[in-house]
Amino acid sequence: MDGEYDFWLLDLDGTLVDVEWSYTREVFDRVGNHLGREFTDREADILWNGLTGSRDRQLERWDIDPRAFWDAFHEEEDPLVRAEQTYLHDDAAFVTDLEVPVGLVTHCQEFLCEPVLEHLDIQDWFDARLCCTEQTGWKPDPEPVQCVMDDLGVGHNGHQGVLAGDGSNDIGAAWNAGLDAIHVERVGHERRGQCVRGDYRVRSFDELF
């Protein structure tokens, strides 16, 4: 399948890597202490994995101020501990076999992303990467995707590309940027509570090759 595309873009968390649940639970316990509100396991799962799409909209539905939440969340995340608690999915190794430019477009913040990439020794998997911010925009906005495409030199010359991710925001970003979309379902439809569409829908990247 890799020969079908001139370039690949990939999400990080939930797509190529995941974090041990114990780390997630501890972070949400500390964030809850900051905000004076407990988070159930289900709520932590929804927010960590973006199961309902926009995390900010989900927070607002729970009457939680998104800015206050993210300030507390980033204060409580320890980059080195997170990196140590992050593991690479076995099927992610397909990236090393791709013979075309590969870019990373992630909502994981740079201060967390870089230690994770270094710990897992996968920095050289990507020819360009972008950690989304308020300035770049957030998936499903196509802007961060197009920015990485420009960095790869495939932004405006008719190249055919694909973006793979685990969430509906990834699929939306791909389609909004004119790319094909691969949804890799890591958590299952029942736990997600909905079915995410994509040009390809798989449980493992191994199904594509």
**Overall CATH class of the largest domain:** Alpha Beta
Q: Kindly name the structural category.
A: alpha/beta
Element-by-element helix/strand order = EEHHHHHEEHEHEHEHE
| CATH fourth-tier homologous superfamily of the largest domain | HAD superfamily/HAD-like
Mean pLDDT value: 94
Q: Report the portion of residues in β strands.
A: 15-25%
Shape: globular
The N- to C-terminal Cα distance equals: 6 Å
The name of the CATH architecture of the largest domain is 3-Layer(aba) Sandwich
Low-pLDDT runs: none
| Helicity, as a percent range | 25-40%
Instruction: Tell me the number of strands.
Output: 8
Task: Summarize the structure in short.
The protein is 39% helix and 15% strand.
Structure description:
The chain has 209 residues and is of the alpha/beta class. It has 2 domains: 2-18 and 86-208, HAD superfamily/HAD-like (Rossmann fold, 3-Layer(aba) Sandwich), CATH 3.40.50.1000; 21-82. 39% of the residues lie in helices and 15% in strands. It is built from 9 helices and 8 strands. The chain has helices at 21-35, 41-49, 55-61, 66-76, 79-84, 110-120, 143-152, 168-176, 189-192; strands spanning 7-10, 17-19, 86-88, 102-106, 128-131, 161-165, 180-184, 200-202. The chain has a 6-stranded parallel beta sheet with strand order 5-4-1-6-7-8, covered by helices on one side. Helix 1 crosses helix 4. This is Haloacid dehalogenase. GO terms for molecular function: phosphoglycolate phosphatase activity.
